[in-house]
């Protein structure tokens, strides 16, 4: 029998594509360095929206970003990030109804210390404990610009209405009103303009009439 010839199989050596690997490594390194650079970028601008009581500075300090830390590392449910390293902090403040027993009475009937020396809120001059919850619920419907015109609130119930109050206004007028009719005080500017710059007592609790004071 004739001898079988051995067939040699030539295996091609795969050449490593060194150039492509180097390019991939350079791209990867560049991306990592870029990420580290962006991560260290500080907050550029801080915007506070909705605050009336606390100052921007106090809110920024409370949020812990007064030193303008890393934009990416900053995270909070009240902080909204936008492009160009801008941060927006949206504030929802509870309405201040008045100053009661040297504390701030809020719209949810809670009392807090007046740490910020708020002196624009009306002073509640006497005891309203028995009616405080309903008082705050109703007075929360008073427009903020009208609340600022009230200097004092006194609880003055009578035989007809146990929810009657006397409001002393900053302009010298006095207003009698009941909680069931509290939204009438929101038209105070219109009422005052009809008084021809005269002072008087405005009865919004019953009758809706004005008793002008004699000069």
Please characterize this protein's 3D structure.
With 215 residues, the protein is α/β, with parallel strands linked by helices. It has five helices and twelve strands. It has helices at 18-40, 56-62, 132-139, 144-147, 188-193; strands spanning 45-49, 79-82, 86-90, 96-100, 103-106, 111-113, 123-124, 150-155, 164-169, 174-178, 200-203, 209-212. The strands form two sheets. The chain has a nine-stranded mixed β-sheet, with no helix packed on it. Strand 4 and strand 5 (103-106) form a beta hairpin. The chain starts with 17 loop residues before the first helix and ends with a strand. The mean pLDDT is 83.
The major beta sheet can be summarized as: 9 strands, mixed
User: How many strands in all?
Assistant: 12
Distance between the termini: 145 Å
N to C succession of SSEs: HEHEEEEEEHHEEEHEE
Strand order of the largest sheet: 6-5-4-7-8-9-10-11-12
Count of DSSP-assigned helices: 5
Structure classification: alpha/beta
Shape field: elongated
Low-confidence stretches at least 5 residues in length (pLDDT < 50)? none
Average of pLDDT: 83
Rg, rounded, reads: 35 Å
Helical content class: 10-25%
Assess the beta-strand content as a share of residues.
Answer: 15-25%
